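request received
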Amino acid sequence: MTTLAVPLPSTESGRAGLRHAIRSEWTKLRSVRSTWISLAVIVVAGIGLSALVSNVEATRWANLGPVDRAQFDPVRFSQTGEFISQFVVGVLGALVVTSEYSTGSIRTTLAAMPRRTTVLVAKAMVVGAVVFVVTQITAFISFFVSQEVLTAHGGKALPAGSSIVTQLRTSVIPVVTLANGGAVRAVILCGVYLTMLTLIALGIGFILRHSAGAISLYVGLLLVIPLVIGILPSSISGSIEKYLPSNLGLAMIVVTTRKTDFAGVLLSPWAATGLLALYAAIIVVLAAWVLARRDA
Amino acid sequence: MISEIALVLSGHAVWGRLLMIEATGLSKTYGKTRAVDGLSFEVRPGAVTGFLGPNGSGKSTTMRMVLGLDRPTAGTVTLDGRQYHDLKWPLREVGALLEAKSIHPGRSARNHLWSLAQTNAIPKGRVDEVLELVGLTAVADRKAGKFSLGMSQRLGIASALLGDPGVLLFDEPVNGLDPEGILWVRTLFHSLAGEGRTIFVSSHLMSEMALTATDLVVIGRGRLIADTTVDDFINSNTEATVLVRSPEASRLAEVLTSSGASVVNGDNGSLLVTGARSSQIGEAAHAAGIALHELSPQQASLEEVFMDLTSDAVDFHGITSATTRAAS
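response:
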């Protein structure tokens, strides 16, 4: 009745480890519909919103004064979809963990892989890699689509190889290519930003173990805290704002047209990337610590 | 009997890795609540061991500690001397069904099992095999959220069997199963035990355990009440009661009471006698010249024995529990 027709491979060597956990987490991630819905929203809304905003900004061009024209950022407009995607990746990152707690299947997972840090690392690697690839592809498509939109409105390409910051003209809508300084960095960091947010949400999921709680906290970090800080006196808020995750994201994506506009308001792109990576590392390490200590 | 022994022996040969579950002074405290309190017991291979206790008595907590999911406040639980955490391929050594519905509702049974198999390098063919074994092949690609409780139990049993483990833990596996399903589970457990595996099954259904288990670990309020076999459990805990009917009931009661037995009035003028065997009662009645119309020893069921034993150890008495016991 229970005779084994399919022999199990030898268990003489090795043990259930990261390699196995990664395969398992990939199967879990791809076998639920919410993953594919989330990724579809990232791609469709990401590209759609970016194209839409580029179109709106291009139609406003004729009415812009010289100062506003100098701030016209064809790269940032092409990544506007990131605003929606940051919430989608948060939900995806949190649910990868909290859906296991809400169903109780985390116990099955941890019984199959008693080394809990391995489970956390596998989940982070799988969902992180998927989000990175999808957001990166989306960011590049958004970039090209948005530049096409600007071109359709009469935009002209900046000279190849020139820096966007110094070469922006006020006569025609600027259109950029990846050859323009800062463009590639901004587009790639858009995907990096969303990937690190995914890991932050995943960490929050392990810490709170509850879908609604984890998603609320995540949205609070991105939306509510900036609002609260915004009503503080500007002397206080001005010194805090640039360290908020959402503003770190902006710093990573923006290719400022006039350096002075964001000087002091935002960190440099690489400083922002480093700080956000630090936030993500702190939350993930904290998550690993509580996961290892608490009863499942 | 001989064939059973032969099966167990062949099990030894096939397994070469028989596992004993051993709990020593196992305790778990949640805040001020002692869920498990100094529990020591052994579960041996080649038998179905029932883990009995009222709801909230600490059965699930104990099972979670065996699986390394909850950390004991004190004491240890080991598998052949090893901690669960140290098992290299846990699913190939220990299979467990904790909660039937603990599956992502949007994932198919097949994908659920496959993701589990991958963690312990179990080949894909084994997924089909266990699906076949529990009779879920036809619905393998349906979302687990649409499964009935009985189907979910079968899926849980399939996941426990996935790694062909020597130790199997089942927490309330017959909940939600129809009579046919219960019979199937019982047969499956017997055949798994016959192969030399260690089967540890929790239940609050004593009647089911009387048919399924040979060994018993009984707990109440987290404490060990008995670690024995089903037969010994009934025998040693049954204070033999004999039902007697006689036209001279009151005189017989006096005779029996004076000889040291205790007598209470039963239904329809019958007497319930404890402290004397039926043969002794018959001879006493004969000596006193009293006619007997009925003399029948009462066999206590496992249910009754259990109720008596754990009545002090039940946390939440329902209003009916006292009357149920009086009537039984």
